[in-house]
Protein: Guanine deaminase
Amino acid sequence: MSYSAAPDEPSPARAVRGHLVTVVDDPDTAGEGALVEHPDGVILIEHGRISAVGDHGALADRIPPGTPVDDHRGRIVSAGFVDTHTHYPQTGIVGAHGTQLIDWLDTYAFPAELAFTDAEHAAAVARVFFDTILRAGTTTALSFGTSSASSVDAFFAESLRRGTRMIAGKVLMDRHAPAGLLDTAESGAADTEALIARWHGVGRNGYAVTPRFAPTSTPAQLAVAGELLARHPGVLLHTHLSENLAEIAWVRELFPDSDGYLDVYDRAGLVGDRSVFAHGVHLTDAELARMSHAGAAIAHCPTSNLFLGSGLFSLRRAADAGVRVALGTDIGGGTSFSMLRTMGAAYEIAQLDGVSLDAPRLLYLATLGGGRALGLGDRIGSLEVGKEADLAVLDPEATELLAYRSARTSSLEELLFVLGTLADDRATAATYVAGHPAYLRD
Ligand SMILES: [Zn+2]
Structure:
């Protein structure tokens, strides 16, 4: 395998040939037309963007002479995956035994995050994280940093080097955590302002104002977060919401005047169409209705909800309420960096809710649905002209079992579904970032 950094110059023209598969709209509303495939297709890439996409037979003449053509015939070429909730600083504590949310934070997450005041440590973990997600075909992530600004500097510097489209932010946390992780309302705001000035819109990086969750911020800090969000129209709001029952009870204790968990954020001006809330497992109907009205999005993190015993998210209830939903890995509470594994876990949780998600819906949640949740639906998430050429190339013969099973599928939808059930990062044959090969398995 090999990794390479993005070139300093815009990528030269390149063509990628293979079995193109993409979802260009929400299958729930657009129906069968949402899933588009070209069994022998080609993507022409110029200056990092898709300039043409379609059947190879129809487009071969348009490929300029001398253009390199990467031949992935027999493999599925998809838009790169979008992970709408993760914590890169928790890469080293994935799969930690024995606790649920609040204990898990104290026992594993906070000690790991304390180390990120060391810029070299932060840079080293960022490198591992980027290597790992690119190997899984993920080209965009919305990630927490730690409360240390150096954690965010390391993440965005690595993203700039790789040319990836990434969103992250410094954790705002001024109570209920180890002293070494606490900021204040004032210092958190100053650090956030400085990081936005340093990184937002630099390369393909974007910023998210990131209070950890209601229990670790004073009302004063949440109010400051709302002011930051209002002052910077291009940045997102990224936090946790209604993940675990003990957490919800704690929020009720800490904010007795609020009308529930979402209302704590709402009163601070944090619930809007640039807001991404991780989990939302235990939301009330009124909270879902409020989120729908505000245009806020939920990052559903199925492997994390299972691993931490948080509960079973109902995609059906969120969809019925008209709330936008996408998928997140929630590393290190989640158990896999692979969005294919995450699609499989989302399917399993929906099964317990009486719903059988089909392959186009799962692929939408992991690609364009994620892009839309992050306000990037016009730039990433599907194979369409004008979009940024972030691609995941998937090999249906990556393992002996996958090859055996794939050979016994009779439709594209069945093949995609089997990938979501059986495949993981071993199925990523290549990952392209802005048209540049960022990971090649072979
Ligand atoms: Zn999380």
User: Anything to note?
Assistant: Residues 85, 87, 240, 278, 330, 333 surround zinc ion (CB under 6 Å). The first strand starts at residue 2 and ends at 3.
